[in-house]
Amino acid sequence: MSTDLELKELVRQKYSEIALQDKDTNASSCCGSGCCSTEVYNIMSEDYTTMDGYNPDADLGLGCGLPTQFAQIKPGDVVIDLGSGAGNDCFIARSQTGETGKVIGIDFTKAMIEKARANADKLGFNNVEFRLGDIERMPVTANAADVIVSNCVLNLVPNKKNVIKDIFRVLKSNGHFSISDIVLVGELPGNLQKAAEMYAGCVSGAIQKNEYMSLITEAGFESVTIQKEKLITIPDDILSTYLSPAEIDEFKNRGTGIYSITVFARKPNCCAPGSGCC
After folding, report:
1. Do the domain assignments include residue 273?
2. Is 177 exposed, middle or buried (0-12, 13-18, 19+ CB in 10 A)?
3. Which of 30, 48, 87, 198 could bond to 116 as cystine, CB 3.0-4.6 Å?
């Protein structure tokens, strides 16, 4: 069995390759994993192009939701984007925080950080920065962020509990997050679960929806809400790479679901008597 470090390195290598590809190449695959489909739509991602702050150079077509649309970002907020890639969500968040706010993107892939920094330089933003680091141990001080966003990233991290705990550490009292991610209802077939390309492509790294939501509440968050939920359908030509025709039929008929969800949660007011969260 692969260790957490081995799985992280797999994802790092895959997303280093993706950083050098264009959006069209990534959009033909499941979150850029390279498991190409002849279908004419991207399995996971949604359309960012109408959102303020959108920059096509920063859009690699890797997301599974629109967390910045639901994140309730206000002018002057400090926003952190986990797994910031080429900077797409950061630049949209910056359009909402304005010049008085600050946006920090964190990614553990050096090639992505370099690409995001180049995009920020071209846009002339002096309040958007990108830091190389692991989102289980963010290179950010405690109680620093008003809002945290993330788009199809936590499912790639083997130890999601550590990430959620660090989100709690970094958010200010009463701060909140809005995170889009992939979750499961029912178990994926073993061949699909083990496929390295599908792991780096967002699906087989996902955990059960109930478990995902429980990790958030167990970390101490309140007001936990699913803001958006969408069933993901994997085309047969991708499934056939990993499953036999009989296994595909069984997979479709057993009621297993792969979902994109956007989750909101708030850190309690640590100044309130008896809050116990400080």
Report:
1. no
2. buried
3. 87
- pLDDT tens digits for 113-144? 999 999 999 999 999 999 999 999 999 999 99
**Alpha carbon distance 201, 45 (integer Å):** 12
* pTM: predicted TM-score of the whole model, two decimal places: 0.83
**In the predicted structure, residue 251 carries a pLDDT above the cut 80:** yes
Closest C-alpha among 196, 208, 247, 256 to residue 7: 196
Instruction: Write the CATH number for 136.
Output: 3.40.50.150
Task: Write the DSSP assignment of 4-73 as a string of letters.
Answer: HHHHHHHHHHHHHHHHTS-HHHHHTSGGGSS---SSSS-SS----TTSTT--GGG--S--SS-HHHHS--
Which SS3 state, helix, strand or coil, does residue 269 take?
coil
Instruction: Using CA atoms of 140, 227, 71, 104 in order, give the dihedral in degrees to the nearest 10.
Output: 30
Which residue stretches of the chain are H helix?
4-19, 23-27, 67-70, 88-97, 110-123, 160-170, 190-194, 196-200, 209-218, 236-242, 245-253
Q: What is the DSSP letter of 187?
A: P
Structural domain includes residue 272:
no
What tokens appear for 10 in the block?
């797999």
In a domain, 40, yes or no: yes
- Give the residue numbers spanning the domain of 250: 4-266
Tally of structural domains, the chain: 1
Q: List pLDDT tens digits, range 15-57.
A: 656 655 555 555 444 444 444 444 433 456 678 888 999 998 8
